Amino acid sequence: MFYEIDLKKFWHDPYPDLKQIQVIAPVVFVPQLNAALMTRRFDVFEQEKRIEIFSSRQPDGLMTRLMGENMMRKDGEYHRKERREIFPSLSPRTVKNVWFQKFEAATRTIIKNLRGRKNIDLVVDFAMPVSGSALIAMTGLREMKPAEMDQVSQAMINGCANYVGDATIEQTCNVATADIDYHIDRVLNDMIKIPDQSVLSVLYHAGQSLESIRANIKLVISGGQNEPRDAIAGTVAAVLQNPEARAHVERTSDWGKAFLEYARWMSPIGMSPRQVTEDQSILGYNFRKDDRVFFMFGAANRDPRVFVNPDEYDLTREIGQSIHFGAGPHFCAGAAASSVLITKVALPLLFEAFPNMELRNPVAWGGWAFRGPLEVNLSLG
C-alpha cells in the first residue's frame, strides 16, 4: 500500500492525511518521504519496542550525519549504558532538588520583564526564553543565551526533518552544531575542575568519550528546547481558545492534564524514525532490509480506535493511552524535567501573573516530525 502527500500541505497540517493512512492499512508507504509510516496507536506502541527489527541505529540517517551518533541512535546495551550515564542529571530527584529552583527563578524574571506590556507573542517572548534558560542550566552551556539556544535547536530539528534534502537547511544545521561544539569547549575545563549536575559535567565524569558527549548534548538540545517551548505556548493557546478547558484549569489548576492532553492532541514530537534490520513481513507489509520506517506518534495519539473525538482538545478525556513521550527503551529521558518545567513552573506562573490574557488572533500550527504553534499573539489584559 502507498499514499501520496503534498509536502507543503502535510507540513501545515498532517492530520487529514494521517487519518486517511490509518484507514488504508497498518503500514503505508509514502513516496514523498521515502518511508513506510506506521500510524495506529497499538501498532506503534508494540512495534517500537522491537529493536531487533526496527533499529534506532541509522549510520546514514539524518540525525547521525548531522549531530553524531547519540544514545537515541543506539540500541540494546549501548543505549542503556549512555542512558544510565545521563540519568543523574535528568532524574526526577535531580529535577526536584536542583533544576526546579533554577526553572522557577528564570521564569519569574522573564514574567517580570513582561509586565507593563500589553501584547506579546507567547512563543518568542515567554516560551522560548523559559525553555532556553532551563536548557542552559541543565546542559551546563552557561555562556549561551536563550535565543541562541533556541536558534541552534530549531536548526537541528529542521535538519533532522529535512527528508527532501534542502542544502540550505543542512548548512544551517551544520553551523548550529559547530556553535554547540564551541560552547562545549568554552566550559568543559571548568566542568573538569568543578563538577556539577549538568549534563555536560555528568557525562564527562562518567567517562563518556568527547565524541559521544558532543552528540548527546546536541540530542538534549534538539528535543529539550523545541518540545517544552512548543508545549508551553501550545497548551496556553489550546486552553485560551477552548472556554471549557479554560474554566477547568482555572477551577482545578490541573496543569498536568492540560499539558498531557495538548501533547496528545498536537504531539510536539510527531515521529520517530527506524531502520529495518532484515527482510520480514509485519502487519501485512513486506519490509526489506534497510527500509526506512516512521513511527507516527502524532497519528497514534489521534487514533479513533483509542480516543473518542480525537481531533478535539478535551480535558475530560482519559489520556492514559497517549504515547507522546514515546514507548519502550527510547522513552524520553528528559520527560521529568519537561513535565516539571511546563506544569509546575511555566503554566501556573504565567496564568497567575496574567489571569486575564486573551488570544488576539487565531493560532497557526506547523510541522509534522516536530509540531507546534508558529506564533501565539496575546493581549495580557
Characterise the protein shown here:
There is one protein chain. This protein has helices spanning 7-12, 15-24, 41-47, 62-67, 76-90, 92-114, 122-139, 146-160, 167-193, 199-205, 210-224, 226-240, 243-252, 255-265, 297-300, 335-353, and strands spanning 27-30, 35-38, 54-55, 119-121, 272-276, 280-282, 285-287, 292-295, 358-359, 364-366, 372-375, 377-379. With 381 residues, the chain is α+β, with helices and mostly antiparallel strands. The chain has one domain: Cytochrome P450 (Cytochrome p450). The strands form four sheets. The protein has a five-stranded mixed sheet. It has a three-stranded antiparallel sheet with strand order 4-12-9. A two-stranded antiparallel sheet has the order 6-7. Helix 7 (122-139) crosses helix 8 (146-160) and helix 8 (146-160) crosses helix 9 (167-193). It is globular and about 60 Å long. The N and C termini lie far apart (52 Å).
Structure in a nutshell:
By secondary structure, the chain is of the alpha+beta class. The protein has helices at residues 7-12, 15-24, 41-47, 62-67, 76-90, 92-114, 122-139, 146-160, 167-193, 199-205, 210-224, 226-240, 243-252, 255-265, 297-300, 335-353, and strands spanning 27-30, 35-38, 54-55, 119-121, 272-276, 280-282, 285-287, 292-295, 358-359, 364-366, 372-375, 377-379.
Topology:
Blueprint: H1 7-12, H2 15-24, E1 27-30, E2 35-38, H3 41-47, E3 54-55, H4 62-67, H5 76-90, H6 92-114, E4 119-121, H7 122-139, H8 146-160, H9 167-193, H10 199-205, H11 210-224, H12 226-240, H13 243-252, H14 255-265, E5 272-276, E6 280-282, E7 285-287, E8 292-295, H15 297-300, H16 335-353, E9 358-359, E10 364-366, E11 372-375, E12 377-379
Parallel strand pairs: 2-8
Antiparallel strand pairs: 1-2, 3-5, 4-12, 5-8, 6-7, 9-12, 10-11
Helix pairs in contact: 6-7, 6-16, 7-8, 7-12, 8-9, 8-11, 9-10, 12-14, 12-16, 14-16
